[in-house]
């Protein structure tokens, strides 16, 4: 078969070049040209001549929105509750899911478990492995205790062969593990390059939409934390799931960051065990480290991930630094940390200018909601002063640049969960203070950062 002609297109300005160049000839951006299959036929620049719009293509019939029948999407639960929760109920016909995460975090394990459950429920499945041999996957299935599995396996990395096999076997769900190892014959660039990843994902998406076969793509994460190359994939697919958690700890979170068929920001919680991933249905206390005595630099917050509140310990270490002190955060936004330090200085008179400041959300969890602000500030002050917060203490609330403390959504639920787990003192935004007292919990409502600091000093 003759190779299809390819061109190189700039991801910034859309300019093209017949060869790969380091610098885009049109806009001058560096390293932005990626390979694409060239559009066949004439009229590459057909839109450049306004008088040429008509006549090149036939006008299509349009329809008012109201006349289009909306159908509820049919979902098939995978049988793994925590996965179904993030998917918004289950696998959708013709839906494309991208699941990303660090190597070794459990993507292949989870998908093999899910495929086996679906196969047992009577849905034909196909697992395409490009990273491991069939024997390796079989070994994993043995470990998972599903050795009698009827999941169909294909060890293949060439897209055209994969598509032909899918066509011939007609499964209901296909897993591509991983999209980075898949390559198309039509492009000369190496597997894993942005061009290949994009081309393969586009073909698979088209196949899914055309046939109603659900496709699950596994994607790796680069050092920068983006799905390698596949930032470009995020808009192509229907659902983007992201594995997080510390590979050294037992717990894993699966977070939905985009879902055309369900709520985002829902999370699934799993524990990696000897026999694969097990769902954790009550995850509220897994991100607390167990101190026998309260220690300086630790403050517990309640974060609301999706529909379930979870208690997470925020740790800070403030230590005298050199001429250019370091600010480091793990699991929390770094820019936000700089902002909080400035607010702390200006509005509460707590200066960390000459100190190294490290903050960490325990257990490898990532917290993106600003409700962590108050807990971050309190743990920093606690570490700076070398004074632990009281036993059973927790705090949450967003802090603004003017030093005001803003409410967090659904404060009551957060407080109730904390009370259930035996927490006894809370510093929260005024608007989150409950009207009726919560049993066992003393609540201090504050409007400003300095107030929060004063409350803590008095408690101490
Ligand atoms: P894996 O699913 O291969 O990760 P990924 O596909 O995301 O790269 O997970 C591999 C890790 O999980 C590996 O370090 C071993 C561990 N593991 C268990 O602890 N228990 C198990 O039952 C299995 C199958 C794996
Ligand atoms: Mg894998």
TrEMBL record:
It comes from Acidovorax delafieldii 2AN. Coiled coil: none annotated. The middle region has homology to RecA with ATPase motifs including the RadA KNRFG motif, while the C-terminus is homologous to Lon protease. Keywords: ATP-binding, DNA damage, DNA repair, DNA-binding, Hydrolase, Metal-binding, Methyltransferase, Nucleotide-binding, Stress response, Transferase, Zinc, Zinc-finger. GO terms for molecular function: ATP binding; ATP-dependent DNA damage sensor activity; damaged DNA binding; hydrolase activity; methyltransferase activity; zinc ion binding. One of its GO terms (biological process) is recombinational repair. A motif (RadA KNRFG motif) lies at residues 258-262. The keyword rRNA-binding does not apply. Residues 72-221 form the RecA family profile domain. This is DNA repair protein RadA. Residues 356-460 are annotated as: Lon-protease-like. SMART domains: AAA (SM00382). InterPro entries: AAA+_ATPase (IPR003593), DNA_repair_RadA (IPR004504), P-loop_NTPase (IPR027417), RecA_ATP-bd (IPR020588), Ribosomal_Su5_D2-typ_SF (IPR020568), Ribsml_uS5_D2-typ_fold_subgr (IPR014721), Rubredoxin_2 (IPR041166). The gene is radA. Belongs to the RecA family. RadA subfamily.
């Amino acid at each position: 078969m003759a190779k299809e002609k390819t061109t190189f297109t700039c991801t910034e300005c859309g300019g093209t070049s017949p060869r790969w160049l380091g610098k885009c000839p049109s806009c001058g951006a560096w390293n932005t040209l990626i390979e694409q299959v060239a559009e066949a036929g004439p009229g590459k620049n057909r839109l450049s001549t306004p008088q040429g719009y008509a006549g090149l293509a036939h006008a299509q019939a349009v329809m008012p929105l109201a006349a289009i029948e909306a159908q509820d999407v049919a979902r098939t639960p995978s049988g793994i509750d925590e996965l179904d929760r993030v998917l918004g109920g289950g696998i959708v016909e013709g839906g494309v899911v991208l699941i990303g995460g660090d190597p070794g975090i459990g993507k292949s394990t989870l998908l093999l478990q899910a495929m086996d459950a679906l196969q047992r429920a009577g849905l034909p499945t196909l697992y395409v492995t490009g990273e491991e041999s069939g024997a390796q996957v079989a070994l994993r299935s043995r470990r998972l205790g599903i050795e009698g599995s009827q999941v169909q396996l294909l060890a293949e990395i060439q897209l055209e062969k994969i598509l032909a096999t899918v066509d011939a076997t007609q499964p209901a769900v296909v897993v591509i593990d991983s999209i980075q190892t898949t390559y198309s014959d039509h492009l000369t660039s190496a597997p894993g390059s942005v061009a290949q990843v994009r081309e393969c994902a586009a073909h698979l998406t088209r196949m899914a939409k055309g046939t109603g076969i659900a496709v699950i793509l596994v994607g790796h994460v680069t050092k920068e934390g983006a799905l390698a190359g596949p930032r470009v994939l995020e808009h192509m697919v229907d659902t983007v799931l992201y594995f997080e958690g510390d590979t050294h700890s037992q717990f894993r979170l699966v977070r939905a960051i985009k879902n055309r068929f369900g709520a985002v920001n829902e999370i699934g919680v799993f524990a990696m065990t000897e026999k694969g991933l097990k769902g954790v249905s009550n995850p509220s206390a897994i991100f607390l480290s167990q101190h026998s005595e309260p220690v300086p630099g630790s403050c517990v917050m309640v974060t609301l991930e999706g529909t379930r509140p979870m208690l997470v310990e925020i740790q800070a270490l403030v230590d005298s630094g050199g001429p250019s002190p370091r600010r480091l955060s793990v699991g929390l936004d770094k820019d936000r940390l700089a902002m909080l330090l400035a607010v702390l200085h200006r509005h509460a008179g707590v200066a960390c200018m000459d100190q190294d400041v490290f903050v960490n959300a325990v257990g490898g969890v990532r917290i993106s909601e600003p409700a962590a602000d108050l807990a971050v500030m309190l743990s920093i002050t606690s570490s700076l002063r070398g004074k632990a917060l009281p036993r059973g203490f927790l705090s949450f609330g967003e802090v603004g640049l003017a030093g005001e403390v803003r409410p967090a959504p659904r404060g009551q639920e957060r407080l109730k969960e904390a009370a259930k787990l035996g927490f006894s003192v809370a510093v929260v935004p005024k608007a989150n203070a409950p009207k009726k007292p919560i049993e066992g919990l003393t609540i201090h409502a504050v409007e400003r950062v300095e107030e929060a600091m004063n409350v803590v000093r008095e408690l101490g």
